[in-house]
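The protein record minuted underneath.
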Amino acid sequence: MLRFPGVPSQVPRARRLVAAVLGRDHPLYDDCALLTTELATNAVLHSRSGAGGWFTVAVRASGAAVRVWVADAGSDEPPCACRTTGDRPDPDGAHATNGRGLPLLEALSHRWGLSRAGGATTVWFELAPATAG
């Protein structure tokens, strides 16, 4: 687990943590890197982490499966899976410039969840390789 200052320049460092743990040749590398980037960005933009705080990232790979946690300093609002354009809802997301993190999480992860405790929010996801069937 590593702790990062809650500034945008630290998001690529969070992504590099995933790279260091998995290695570029891991079959789930691209999806893990993308989802970690989304969650770290959310931590910086949508929580108190981005107001002078910190966020943490942890990665565990066991066999071919990977689990990543991103914990931030929390916010007054629950995480939102809505898509917006500026300050207006954009239900189909056609013009969205943000609000894609949690929908991506839903689409790409095997499973995911979040917890809120002690003012902090932790969002995690698991990825597992597709099984031939």
